Amino acid sequence: GAGGENRYFGARSDRDCGLQSLLQGITVAFRWPLMMAFAVLGVYLVADLFPDRELVEKAVTLLRTALPDVSAAQWAERMNDLANHPERYGELVTRLQALLGDGWADRVLMLGYNGTVNPEQVLPAVMLNRLPVGLKGFLLVAMFAALMSTFTGTVNGAGALFVKDIYQNLIRPAAARRELLIVSYLATIGVVVGGFLMGVAAENINDIWSWLIMGLGSGGLAGILRLYWWRCNGWGMVAGTIVGGLGAVLQRAFLPNMLQWDKLAPPTQEWLSAQLPGWLVHALHMPGEWQAFLVIGSTSLAGLVLVSWLTPPTDRAVLTHFYRTTRPFGWWGPIRARVEPALRERINRENRRDIAAIPFALLAQITLFLLPMQFVIKEYGSFLRTLPLFLLGAAGLYWFWYRHLGAIDAPELDARPAREPAATVH
Q1: Which of 65, 197, 279, 302 suits 294 as a labelling partner, its CA being 20 to 30 A distant?
Q2: Residue 21: which residues within 8 A CB-CB, separation 6 or more?
Q3: Per-residue burial over 397-425, b = 16 or more CB atoms within 10 Å of its CB, e = otherwise
Q4: Is the alpha carbon torsion for 222, 224, 228, 233 positive or negative?
Q5: d(CA 64, CA 108)
Q6: Domain extent listing, the chain
Q7: 243: burial class by Cβ within 10 Å (0-12, 13-18, 19+)?
Q8: Which residues contact 49 (CB under 8 A, 6 or more apart)?
């Protein structure tokens, strides 16, 4: 990783860092059979609630006709209000009861805005209607614990970053402790309120998740290049992050769906096809989140590269120490030349092994996720075909990566050279 995981700072050695990554890759696989089990139970639950699939479309059509002012973002809230306070809706409740039967309230909660079963309601419905009382409470507490541990860590981290990196560093360096505490409280409240408003405005989970990953996440591509290009510096990182983050926010505010080709008028499509190169026309046919990823990611990287070249490079001694301790591959020619030949060859061998291990790691990770899911849904034939692929990936990962973990810790890699003046030639 890029160093943002606290557990790596607590590791005793590079070997322990590698074992931490391996442990995470294995333990994260346990979530998939659990979710798949809920999905299977959800299939049976939906089949019981809606034996005739046309009922879903008819019920949604009835609801959207009776409630024309309800948007996709407000749909779940209004369905909950309808199920819990039917006295407010008069004739609509009578028509729903005639269409869906006596259990209409439970069925209404499962309806989605687009005329299908709402996938976001499957897990709550399964827990409510299919799990025994003891197991239901246990899983509910576990999910709340997982949510709050992630939520509190993220919120507190965001407030601390704002106070230390922005307020105290750039705005008020001499701020007193009490002032910093107040600013920390305000920053934390701001993060929570901002997240709440974004959640209310989002039409569904996928809507906000795709923006976080494909839009806002693409603005963080600058953090990856710094590991593979010696000329990247702090100013370039700041510029790339600001350009990418600001671009993601503006895209979300003014062009949330980017350019949807199928919604353009035929004359506009013809004109664009005639004026633009073929690869760009093909890109315009992509889903909106992919367009956002390409545009925001490209502008973020361009800002990083441009500002890095226009500002002085990082001190060569710092870069040399980073290269010796981190041992990255990529565009590190001027720094690589400063390292003694024996150590340089050792680092190159490690990099070659890591690159060779990548396809095996991907194969092992993906098949590790697939195996328990195939077992849960009783696809035993697929399970037996996937198992050899997993064993192949695990064997390759062991051969190229795991068996060499004990050889990557060496005192000479941590020697910090004396600081030298920063170079002035770009």
Answers
A1: 197
A2: 1
A3: beebbeebbeebeeeebeeeeeeeeeeee
A4: positive
A5: 12
A6: 38-130, 148-201, 205-311
A7: buried
A8: 103, 106, 107, 110
Tokens matching residue 106: 């439970």
Summarised one tens digit per residue, pLDDT across range 46-97 is 888 888 888 899 999 999 999 999 988 789 889 999 999 999 998 999 999 9
Kindly indicate the confidence band of residue 417, based on its pLDDT and cuts at 50, 70 and 90: very low
| Alpha-carbon gap, residue 244 to 222, rounded angstroms | 9
Distance from C-alpha of 190 to C-alpha of 184, rounded to nearest angstrom: 10
CA distances from 200 to 15, 28, 73, 194, 253 (A): 44, 29, 7, 10, 14
Q: Which position has the higher pLDDT, 321 or 13? A: 321
Amino acid symbol at 53: R
Quick one: CA torsion of 148, 149, 155, 158, rounded to 10 degrees?
Answer: -170
Amino acid at 66: A
| Of the candidates 13, 22, 20, the residue with the CA atom closest to the CA atom of residue 398 | 22
Return the ∠ at Cα 286 (arms to 2 and 277), rounded to 5°: 105
Distances (CA, A) of 340 to 107, 320, 335, 377, 408: 70, 11, 11, 56, 17
